[in-house]
Each structure stands twice: as structure tokens, then as C-alpha cells.
Amino acid sequence: MPPKAQPKAYILPLKTHKLTVFLTASLSDKISSIKEDALTALKAPVLSAPNPHAEFAMNVDETADWTVPTVTSVKDFELCRAIKERGRPTGKYETLEDDMQVRNCLTNWEALYVQFRDSDGELLPVQVSTPSVLDEEDEEAELAAARKGKRKAPPEGE
User: Residue 134: which domain range?
Assistant: First the structure.
């Protein structure tokens, strides 16, 4: 079977706070181009519009900590990616330079994170909430299954 062909465009989830936006980028695009797309998404009126179906919506915190900051230009934020060890995020992020090409620094479906600037121009820490894919009950069952059969055999009586 021939190797899988490289996609012509990447799908990049852009995450901040409790918001995820999906962006597309060609392999030859620069990070500055993705920042322009991110700016358009972060300025979209839907971000500040009230939910017309609030009774069906999930229960979310409406505190100021989890409100996406208002941006006016690409200078108000930076894009970064998670630094991973053994495939798991470490909670640290690497800022992407505007002149980097997508093919050289990202992979398809790699999440990008928004790091906003404060009023002094200093970068704020990345703030993102990643919900668990599994329910709490499923996590407990999965952990129990992972431990099953891992105990040391009891010593045999002589």
C-alpha cells in the first residue's frame, strides 16, 4: 500500500479560554497569515452575541477570568503551540514567529493557542480549558482496567 499523501492544507484548532475555532492553512502559509485569520475569528460578532437558546446551553462560568479579551490588531496577541513530552502537553507553550512557514513548524490538527498581551504589551499566560473526553465514571473504569493484572503474585506457601 502506498504511503499516505501529505494534505495540501492543514486544519488547525485555535484554542483560548473555553473557545475553539478551526482554521485552515496551506503548507506554504506563514504564521502571520494564520494570525490574520485568528484576528478575524476573535473579532467576530458571534463572540459577544447572547445565546438565543440559553435554556439548552451548557452551564458555563460567566466570570471575567473566562471572558475572551477584546482584540483590535494582530499586535494584541501571539500564537503559540504546546510543548509536549512523550506526546503529552507539559503546560508550557512556545511562541511561533510570524515569518515561520506552516510546513516547518506545525502538523495537521496541531492545536494553536492564543497568548494575549496586556495594556503594557507584556504577554499574559495562556488560559485555556480543555474538557475531559471521558465522563468521570469512564475514567475510573479505564484506570481500574489498566491496573488489572498488574499485581505481584502472592508468595506460594511451602
Answer: 9-50+59-147
pTM of structure: 0.76
Q: Closest by alpha carbon to 59, among 110, 113, 18?
A: 18
Q: 63: domain CATH number? A: 3.10.20.90
Total number of domains in the chain: 1
Within-domain flag for 132: yes
Residue 2 in any domain: the answer is no
Is residue 71 within 8 Å of residue 116, measured between CB atoms? yes
Number of C-beta neighbours around residue 37 at 10 A: 16
C-alpha cell at 50: 447572547
Residue corresponding to grid cell 508550557: 92
21: confidence class by pLDDT, cuts 50, 70, 90: very high
Contact partners, residue 139, CB within 8 Å, separation at least 6: 132
| % of the chain beyond a pLDDT of 70 | 75
The stretch 71-97 carries a mean pLDDT of 93
Residue 4 resides in a domain? no
**pLDDT of 82 higher than 90:** yes
